[in-house]
Amino acid sequence: VDQALATAKTYTDATATQTLNTAKAYTDAALGNQQSISDLRNQMNDQFQNVNKRIDESGAMSAASTQMAINAAGATGIGRIAAGVGSQSGRSAISVGYAAPLGSKMHVSVGATASGSQTSVGAGFGVDL
Fold first, then answer.
1. Confidence at residue 6, expressed as pLDDT on a 0 to 100 scale
2. How big is the CA angle at 40 (ends 34 and 45), to the nearest 5 degrees?
3. Most exposed among 43, 67, 73, 126, judged by the fewest C-beta atoms under 10 Å?
């Protein structure tokens, strides 16, 4: 009987130790996954903030370019230099351009705008019909 109890106790202790080790490994893996998910969430938040910043800078650049283009339109003589500024959600931009007639029916324009680390350039050509 003593031998049977000792064998049962040894088996139970071994099984309990194995179960505890398995549970500990599972818990460690689950906690590691939670940290990975938290890290991923933080990376995504950073990326969304960067995208929002770029969207706001692009909006500010669009406003600045529009204001510059309105003032450059209808250039006469040797041409017109124009500038515009814009803002969106705390981001600001500046735009400068030049427009000139080419003869009596054609027009050309060039412009550039900048906000933060973003820049944009463009050119246009038109013919009166």
1. 86
2. 125
3. 43
Q: How far is the C-alpha of 2 from the C-alpha of 4, rounded, in Å?
A: 5
Residue type at 47? Q
48-93 pLDDT, tens digit each: 999 999 999 999 999 999 999 999 988 889 999 999 999 999 999 9
pTM over 0.85: no
Superfamily of domain 2-127: GSPII I/J protein-like (3.30.1300.30)
Contacts of 67 by beta carbon, 8 Å cutoff, 6+ apart = 84, 85, 86, 95
Domain ranges of the chain: 2-127
- Rounded Cα distance between 109 and 53, Å, is 29
Dihedral sign from CA coordinates of 118, 116, 58, 82: negative
Give whole-number Cα distances, 100 to 60, 79, 111, in Å: 25, 4, 12
